[in-house]
Specification:
Layout lengths: L2 H33 L5 H8 L2 H5 L21 H9 L8 H9 L11 H14 L3
Helix pairs in contact: 2-6, 4-6
The structure holds heme C.
Heme C (HEC) binds next to α3, α5 and α6.
Length: about 130
């Protein structure tokens, strides 16, 4: 046994310690994810995308965006999903035109997958049903 192998052993050990650190760190992150107020995937999308900034944490609207209330009366899951995909293309309906004129910045388009939109739509229609 030369001095060389002793050194390798030490560096092995510290590598293992580093690996443990990474593991604990990952567990920590996933715990934070779970603790993240136990939010549903829909809520994570709503709050994570910044919808609440304009529409309010309780959907009652802000100076930047209208309240999201009674959405079921105006939207089906399909049309609402299309709207979120292409907000501008709905600007011709009278109701949205009026909303559009009321707020300085128009509803932005968000880059989401169809699946994410579906989750968000179910969340919105559920939360703001009537
Ligand atoms: C920069 C502010 C802003 C953000 C961020 C924003 N919106 Fe909007 N939203 C608006 C405005 C303003 C309107 C009214 C229509 C228009 O002007 O384009 C609107 C309209 C809507 C409508 C139609 C409301 C109705 O009465 O039919 C829905 C639904 C909606 N937003 C959902 C969302 C969701 C979901 C998000 C997040 C993914 C979001 N918005 C993010 C500003 C915003």
């Amino acid at each position: 046994m030369g001095r060389g192998s002793g050194v390798t052993e030490i560096s092995h050990r510290s590598n293992r310690r580093r690996l443990w650190c990474v593991c604990l760190w990952l567990v920590g992150i996933s715990l934070v994810g779970v603790v993240d107020c136990g939010r549903s995937p829909g809520a994570v999308l709503y709050f994570g995308s910044g919808c609440a900034r304009c529409h309010g944490a309780d959907f009652s609207g802000t100076q930047l965006g209208p309240p999201l209330k009674g959405l079921k009366a105006y939207w089906t899951p399909e049309s609402l999903s299309q709207y979120l995909d292409q907000p501008a293309s709905f600007g011709q309906t009278d109701r949205l035109k009026a909303l559009h004129q009321k707020y300085r910045i128009s509803m932005p388009r968000f880059d989401m997958t169809a699946e994410q939109r579906q989750i968000l739509v179910a969340y919105l229609l559920g939360k703001t049903g009537d």
